[in-house]
Automatic annotation (TrEMBL):
Protein name (record): GTP cyclohydrolase 1
Gene3D superfamilies for this protein: 1.10.286.10, 3.30.1130.10
EC number: 3.5.4.16
GO-annotated cellular components: cytoplasm
Pathway membership: Cofactor biosynthesis; 7,8-dihydroneopterin triphosphate biosynthesis; 7,8-dihydroneopterin triphosphate from GTP: step 1/1
Pfam families the UniProt entry points to: GTP_cyclohydroI (PF01227)
Residue ranges of domain GTP cyclohydrolase I in the record: 37-189, 277-462
GO terms of molecular function: GTP binding; GTP cyclohydrolase I activity; zinc ion binding
Keywords: GTP-binding, Hydrolase, Metal-binding, Nucleotide-binding, Tetrahydrobiopterin biosynthesis, Zinc
GO BP of this protein: folic acid biosynthetic process; tetrahydrobiopterin biosynthetic process; tetrahydrofolate biosynthetic process
Length: 472
């Protein structure tokens, strides 16, 4: 008995040593890949004209590396490890005509919120996923596994149709059902440059697409089972006529590849080769092949997007706007506060890039100010230009709010309140994954900083449903 125990002990020790060596090797590779991404991010920051040692950017390379590794962890996961052991026996109907339980009863998991990186431009996109399957062989899968399998493929560089197809195929192979159905509602940040946003006040910030994929009994898009699937979705935002099924004609999903975007991007100076090489290095460190056909132009496209936020001298542009605004405004005179009235501009859209993670954040700006009776309010276009000017930089929301308030105060007589509402993709691209979260910041100057009733009057005028949520 002692010999048996000793032999079992030796086997266990060997297994532990083997696992330990594998873990050690994996940790070494992970550290090397993280360090490589950090070095590449420093190249990108330098290419933007930034000081990598300034406060706020000092830890950015590490934060970006961690966010990217987390956002692409699907490359290091296997579906088999998730589904294996999660299949359970479940009987169907007994001696009755019909379908139910583990033999033909439709099962749906709705509204799975996912996050992925677009393989064409490396910008994030959001996904609301609906998964359905028809059990067979009296076999069902734990419902949480449907979510985990979809997340594996979402956490890779993706495009919507391939994401739907890969999830569908993986579930069909892993569960062996009668069929699998996938519907994805995808929202992508619209790839534009600073010039076009300044000139186009009606700029639409998101590109949206509906895609689907089906296997087995769902392979025929006209099958009756699809009607059951849509009925159980009960999701009013889905228009069946606009859904792209597998094999349908391709749609230009990423606007970075559209002719309009290419024309706008051509205004940007020749892309920095060192920055392009740095992005290619990041792709390789994430486990991708930078030479893959779909990724061939990705480094250049991402650099073109990033160059919108370079630390360049745009002060001449802003000064021109401000001079014109001050010449046409009569709000600088000293007047009795009791004679002033509240004016406001609400829902001024903005886009920016978080300097902590190099990920976009977007939202709306609300501006309130007091002017004397008989004086004209400031033009909306001027205020929007100020918002865009400070948005198109590496930013943090608190600084953005303060800068807007301090810049417009001389134009508006000193009594100013600014509220910024924003959604940050860094809140969903990392481990916390807080979908739907929103951040509000406020700056008050002059009377608004001391007069509670004036603040309350303005804050109550802000609509409860703003456009800052954007994607879904």
């Amino acid at each position: 008995m002692g010999c048996l125990d000793e032999g079992r002990f030796n086997v266990e020790v060997e297994n532990v040593v083997s696992i330990g060596c594998a873990c050690k090797k994996s940790c070494v590779e992970e550290e090397a890949n993280t360090a490589s991404i950090e070095d590449a991010v420093k190249v990108l920051l330098l290419g933007l004209g930034e000081d990598v040692n300034r406060e706020g950017l000092r830890k950015t390379p590490l934060r970006v590396a961690k966010a990217l590794r987390e956002g692409t962890r699907g490359y290091r996961q296997k579906v088999k490890d998730i589904v294996q052991g999660a299949l359970f026996p479940e009987a169907g109907l007994d001696n009755r005509v019909g379908l139910a339980g583990g033999a033909g009863g439709l099962v749906i998991v709705r509204d799975l919120d996912l996050f992925s990186y677009c393989e064409s431009c490396l910008l994030p996109f959001q996904v609301k996923c609906h998964v359905g399957y028809v059990p067979s062989g009296q076999r069902v899968v734990g419902l949480s596994k449907l979510s985990r399998v979809t997340d594996v493929f979402a956490k890779r560089l993706q495009e919507p149709q391939r994401l739907a197809d890969e999830v569908c195929s993986a579930l069909h192979q892993g569960i062996k059902p009668a069929g699998v159905a996938i519907i994805l509602q995808c929202s992508h940040i619209h790839f534009r440059d600073i010039e076009s946003v300044f000139l186009d006040s009606n700029h639409q910030g998101w590109t949206k697409i509906l895609v689907s994929s089906g296997s087995g009994v769902f392979e025929n898009k006209s099958a009756d089972i699809w009607a059951d699937f849509f009925s159980l979705l009960k999701f009013r935002g889905i228009d069946k006529e606009k859904i792209h099924f597998r094999g349908s004609s391709d749609q230009c999903w990423c606007s970075s590849q559209s002719s309009l975007s290419a024309k706008a991007s051509s205004k940007i100076e020749v892309v920095n080769p060192a920055m392009v090489t740095a992005v290619a290095s990041i792709l390789k460190s994430l486990g991708e092949d930078p030479l893959r056909k779909e990724l061939a132009g990705t480094p250049s496209r991402f650099v073109k997007w990033l160059m919108n936020f370079q630390n360049s001298n745009l002060d001449m542009r802003l000064n021109g706007f401000l001079c014109n605004g001050m010449n046409s405004s009569n709000t600088n005179g000293k007047v009795n506060l009791n004679d002033k009235k509240l004016c406001s501009e609400l829902n001024l859209p903005f886009w920016s890039q978080c300097e902590h993670h190099l990920l976009p954040f977007h939202g709306v700006v609300h501006i309130g100010y007091l002017i004397s009776e008989g004086f004209n309010p400031i033009g909306k276009s001027l205020l929007q230009s100020v918002v865009h000017f400070y948005g198109f930089k590496l930013q943090v929301q608190e600084r953005l709010t303060r800068q807007i308030a301090e810049t417009i105060t001389p134009l508006l007589g000193g009594d100013v309140i600014v509220v910024v509402e924003a959604s940050h993709t860094c809140m969903i691209s990392r481990g916390i994954e807080k979908f739907g979260s929103n951040t509000a910041t406020i700056a008050t100057l002059g009377r608004f900083s001391t007069d509670t009733s004036a603040r309350t009057m303005f804050l109550q005028s802000i609509p409860s449903d703003t456009s800052s949520a954007g994607g879904q």
